[in-house]
Amino acid sequence: MFTNFWRISNSGFQKPVDIIAETVAIGFIIIARLFGGFEFLELYVFDTFMRIRPQENPDERILIVGINEDDIRNIGQYPIPDGKLALLLQELQNSQPVAIGLDIYRDLAVPPGSKELANTFKQAKNLIGVETIVPDISKRKVNPPPTLLSEQLGFADAVPDKDGKQRRALLGASNANDEWRLSLPLQLARIYLEKQGIKLDSIDGDEYGMRFGVTELPRFRSNSGGYIKADAGGSQTLINFRAHPQPFAIVSLKDVVNKKVLPEKIRNKIVLVGIMSPSAKDYVVSEAIKLKNYSKDPLIYGVEVQAHVVSQIISAVEDRRTLLKTWSDGGEYLWIVFVGFAGIFLGRSINSSRKLVLTIGIISLILVGISYQLLIFGWWLPIVPSILVFLCNGLAIAVFSKYDEALRTRIQDRQIVIDSVFETIHGGPLQKLSMILRNLDGDEKLDKQILSTDLRQLNQELRQVHILLQRETSTNGEIFYLRGEQQLNLQQPIHEVLHQVYFDVLERNHPEFKTLKIKIVNFQRLDERNLSIEQKRGLCRFLEEGLTNAGKYARGMTRLDIICKQEQGFNVIRVSDNGCGIQESNREHQGFGTKQAQNLAKQLRGKFQRFANSPKGAVYQLIWTARKFNFWRL
């Protein structure tokens, strides 16, 4: 009863247990991602991909006037006084730029020259000044220059991530008075594109959506790409930094006021004026940019970030340069699930550990390459959880499944051994013992010699049971045991191991081998790329059983054919004789060896056959495909 229960539970619950084990990893990866477990790695990979993109051309439509350390030293005052800024802006206006963005706070006057700067602000209609609308840590914000009109204002608030790096830009947001404001880069892009007849519009159905003509600016969401529950307030977008060590022309304040910058470099350009001095500390960290000298903490000045945002907007509209987009949450998680099941499929399809590792490695590199190429085309995929779930299911779950399968195979083999021992004891020693007891009960004058002979025979049969158990349970890793202490290494080519099994069995003292006159032996290399150690052990048992049956029961045998080779795309192991053949009474009998052979054929997705030879004799044969590719094994 308990044996039957074990068999039912072992076969009936195999599929659900496998399914649960193989989907746990997918569920764990998804849950870990939902709680932000991979956000740091996702952002790191994103930065790396952005940094190693193919180099682009500089954007010649933008000029940066960077006030550097030499400028501050020459002026002898910081902040830069209003008079110097007024002189700079007047020189720029003389060369007729499309727009000027002053990325320097000027909510308070910095004399001398405050009156001149106020007049310049009033006269320069293409000038955009800056303010902040989001309070900083001290809950303070910077007011705009008082003499600029509201349409000449743009905020300069940055949106750093948790690691302090800047990867996204705030394009529009409401201030403390619930008034909608645009950022400095968006204002500059608006002025430039309006000159081309392209206006800034909203997107139907999205109150924060923006577009220029047919070009929509992708909105950043709280779970976009690798982000999890990020602050997506206002209208934000991912920054597609221009991939070039020096993407914009940069000149100094001194060069402009001394007329060393040709008017052609300013005319019809977008000019950004900002501080580019380390002492002013107006910079952010970004590892997504190309630098001439990449350091541990790559710094980019605030005015450069503004230039990158302006460039990506006007380049998307005029040049169809890609903007960074992400899949929906559902699409990303469906992708992770798909990749996870692809890993399960490969792990179950490839039995060779070396091939599995190689295949998983190659496909992982392909996934990384696909993600990189898609990012170049503007799509950010969740690469980290995809690779992790693929590796986990492809390698870890595959190892577990193969161990589980090997364990089940051993259990099935042990069950066959138990059944065989039961049949052997019941059909031999128990019957002999029962006969001896009947003779003792029925004949008080039983001959002692007959009794002694019967007891010796009983002892021999019991010893045979012991030998059977010892052989079938004494498997040690990669070793197959023959008679006595003889061992075969299952790591050797299987056709060589089978050849040694053949030699060993033919040397045994089986009665029908004495009449043998002709032996046709053909051992050739088999396709063993997908054979496990347990399956190799089973092949050795199969050949040993087939030869032993011929030696014991093929009465009158004079010819024995042993074939081990590939035939028409199949591996074949065949033992055929010309003895008395299969008795009709034994044709449907399934003994120990037959059950083992059937179990082995099932594992190999092959076929075991035992049939009559022509014109007489028996054939004992196992066939399985030489190029086995096991599809879904649930």
TrEMBL record:
Keyword Transferase: yes
GO molecular function, one term: kinase activity
InterPro entries assigned: CHASE2 (IPR007890), HATPase_C_sf (IPR036890), HATPase_dom (IPR003594)
Family matches, as Pfam families: CHASE2, HATPase_c
Lineage of producing organism: Bacteria, Bacillati, Cyanobacteriota, Cyanophyceae, Nostocales
Transmembrane stretches, start-end: 333-350, 357-377, 383-400
CHASE2 domain span: 38-346
The entry's keywords: Kinase, Membrane, Transferase, Transmembrane, Transmembrane helix
Protein name: Histidine kinase
